[in-house]
Design brief:
mainly alpha, ABC transporter involved in vitamin B12 uptake, BtuC, two-stranded antiparallel ribbon
Length: 324
């Protein structure tokens, strides 16, 4: 029983850590699509931010400078996507995929050129990483049955970006549903002509949404390379941008269901790590490749069979052309 409890705690702790970039990226995609802009370039922006954060942190020895570099880099890519799709009415899917493809090759190339390493940045140490934070009384409470280990192992010990992400969950929910900006954001995604008639700039609202998207993806990328890991490696996002899009759709573009979907996908990811090398009775050891596909298989199964009719914002993916 005690061993099972410890394993459950470790699984919950890993789930929180893995879910952090998924939640940030899913919220980024949700804000963008609420404004009517489809952004499948979340993967590329996260990867670019991860490289920028690791490169800046390795150069200046500060994780905070890395975070700033990640946000700026991701923000510029978000503005590039907005420029192509909002200003010039380009195809939003093509633009997003172009960003993904561009960054996938550019990051490792710059790493080789700048650091002379095979598609990665130097390992980060000390102030170059976001270290875990021990919450008050974590050590004292550890001896208390059940509650103490949960507080010490699952709640405490995460880095600042994890706690920032947790704090952003109610902030994003309030922003979308309880503010004037959120009302206008949802209106732009549903009926941009009505918003334009009311004297609100559709273009400005969509650019603002993309900036928020860029900031959130920047934090997610910085988390991957300066908090969850100790540097940038080739393709380190490993499809997390696409998983975030799936979580957003599974959550039907709503903050709380989206977070729950991210936790589900993160749990599946944490589970596949623990299952590697384990032999099951009557089956034997499952191939590592099959286990690693578990989160993505779960994504396909959920989207295909359990989501139901997910209705996107009506103007999502449709360039706005002002009536003359």
């Amino acid at each position: 029983m005690a061993e099972a409890f410890v394993i459950a705690l470790l699984m919950l702790d890993a789930t929180v850590r893995v879910a952090t970039p998924l939640v940030l990226a899913a919220f980024a995609g949700m804000v963008a699509e609420r404004s009517g802009v489809i952004d499948i370039g979340l993967e590329g922006k996260m990867l670019a931010a991860a490289f920028a954060a690791a490169a800046a942190a390795a150069t200046f020895g500060s994780a905070w400078i890395g975070l700033l570099a990640a946000i700026v880099t991701s923000g510029l890519l978000a503005l590039l996507h907005a420029y192509a799709c909002v200003t010039h009415k380009g195809n939003q899917v093509v633009s997003g995929m172009a960003i993904n493809i561009l960054v996938a090759g550019l990051g490792p190339t710059l790493a080789i050129a700048w650091f002379g390493l095979a598609g990665q940045t130097p390992a980060l140490e000390g102030a170059g990483r976001f270290a875990g934070v021990a919450l008050p009384f974590a050590g004292s409470f550890a001896a208390i049955p059940v509650f103490g280990p949960i507080y010490a192992e699952v709640v405490s010990g995460h880095n600042l970006l994890v706690y920032l992400t947790i704090a952003l969950i109610p902030v994003v929910a309030v922003l979308i549903y309880r503010t004037r900006f959120g009302l206008r954001l949802r209106a732009v995604g549903e009926n941009p002509h009505a918003v334009d008639t009311a004297g609100i700039s559709v273009t400005a609202m969509r650019y603002q949404a993309m900036l928020i998207c860029g900031v959130l993806c920047g934090i997610a990328g910085a988390y991957l390379s300066t908090a969850h890991a100790a540097g940038f490696v080739r393709d380190m996002t490993a499809g997390k941008g696409y998983l975030a899009l799936a979580a957003m759709i599974f959550g039907k573009w709503k903050p709380v269901p989206t977070v729950l979907a991210c936790l589900l996908f993160a749990f599946a990811d944490a589970l596949q790590i623990r299952l590697q090398g384990v032999s099951l009775p009557g089956i034997g050891e499952i191939p590592v490749q099959a286990i690693q596909a578990l989160p993505y298989a779960l994504t396909v199964i959920l989207l295909a069979g359990f989501v139901g009719r997910a209705v996107a914002p009506k103007a999502s993916g449709i360039p706005y052309v002002k009536d003359r």
